[in-house]
Amino acid sequence: MRMLRFSLAAGMGLLWAGVSGASADTLTVGDPAPPLTVSKWVKGEKFDKLDPAQTYVVEFWATWCGPCRASIPHLTELQKEYKDKGVKFIGVSVWEQDQAKVEPFVKEMGDKMVYSVAMDDVPAGEGRQKGKMAEAWMAAAEENGIPTAFVVKKGKVAWIGHPMSMDKPLEKIVAGDYDLSAAAAERREAKAAEQKTNSLFTTLSKHLRAKEHKEALEVIDKAIAETPNLERQLGPTKFDLMLKAGASGSSEYGRKLVEGPLKDQAMPLNNLAWSIVDPDNGLEPARRDVKLALQAAERANELTKGDNYAILDTLAKCYFDSGNPARAAELQEKGRPARPPGRPGDEGATGAVPQGRQEGELRPGGPGPVPFAHPR
User: Of 285, 293, 328, 369, which sits with the fewest C-beta atoms within 10 Å of its C-beta?
Assistant: First the structure.
């Protein structure tokens, strides 16, 4: 039986990693949009500049980014929906390891990618992070995960975020029912909270790398007490630490997560289940709450409608450990067609990917419904 391993870092959900080097300029909601500086238009209408009379969605993606591939059909649907409402969609490939892969990728996507597509202009001799679009848009806005979309109206940035979360704000922007000042204030508050969270994760990562589990638990408990919403991100790591330490109440806390903060988060539920049944975790049989693992994996499978091979694999292991090898074999077989080619997990994610993440390093981002990817 093939089994997937999830590191402690994976238990945190999809993680952010910083783009090296800060941009000299900053970009936020309400600011004038930077210019379009691309090296080549690969598909669709070409633009020399952004027309103030038009509304644009400028989305950043990469060929190696699984969440980007997952969001591309959604962008195509939105382009069709807003085609006659003055909205132009532009996909800009950034952070590419090999820009020669962009055109074949776009061709392969076919009618799943029906909007303008361009490649970033990376100066000769510079690294992929130094592309002109990546610098002027992504780095300036302190966005280090893709896919990321910018909505531009009347020459100003109106919204920044994950394209899978863009439907409602885009609808309001196009309808003229959008408070730009309020959106700018919300963005500032979110970035301030992000900086605080970055500091927290840096401290937590330091304790985890040093195997200072007691100190790590103290950091987590303090953070959750101060900001209860962080439990969705930090809870799985707390559970994992409690589980490995044999702490009393670990099953009760795990059940609280499964029925509360994580109940609608498929991959964090999957990771929690795997942390229990993973044969390499060294847990004594008495500390392996297989019933809890099965509950978490069943819910994760329900959320993904039985189409995620990693979750099916975990669920199979839970059934096997529960004494039902027949059901385990059935799920294992069902999961084979669902397994995407290439790196496990890339095709199934719908969020964003981090840049340069190190093994075992924790970064904020959390198990939200819209993951991101970062350059490798």
Answer: 285
Tell me the β-bridge partners of 87: 55
Residues 6+ apart with CB under 8 A from 113: 43, 72, 73, 75, 76, 91, 106
The confidence score (pLDDT) of residue 339 equals: 52
Nearest to 288 by CA among 299, 267, 301, 272: 272
Which residue, chain included where needed, has tokens 């402690």?
A: 8
Q: What CATH number is given for 192-338 in this structure? A: 1.25.40.10
Q: How confident is the model over 50-67, as pLDDT tens digits?
A: 999 999 999 999 999 999
CATH number of 21-186: 3.40.30.10
Comma-separated ranges of CATH 3.40.30.10 domains in the chain: 21-186
- Is residue 175 over pLDDT 60? yes
Residue 61, beta-bridge partner list? 93
Q: What tokens does 146 get?
A: 């893709």
Three-state DSSP class for residue 269:
helix
**Measured in Å, how far apart are the chain's first and last C-alpha atoms?**
29
Tell which residue, 245, 271, 237, has the closest CA to residue 6.
271
How many Å is the Cα radius of gyration of the chain?
22
Helix, strand, coil percentages, rounded to 5, for the chain: 50, 10, 40
Hey, what are 152's tokens?
């531009």
Tell how strand 148-153 and strand 55-61 pair up: antiparallel
Question: Which of 102-111, 239-248, 310-319 is the least confident region?
Answer: 239-248
Six token digits for residue 138: 């992504």
DSSP states along 97-136: S-GGGHHHHHHHHGGG--SEEEEE---TT--GGG-HHIII
pTM of the model: 0.64
- Asked if 271 and 299 touch (Cβ cutoff 8 Å), the reply is no
* Pairing of β 87-93 and β 55-61: parallel
Q: Tens of pLDDT along 161-173?
A: 999 999 999 999 9
Strands (E), 174-322: none
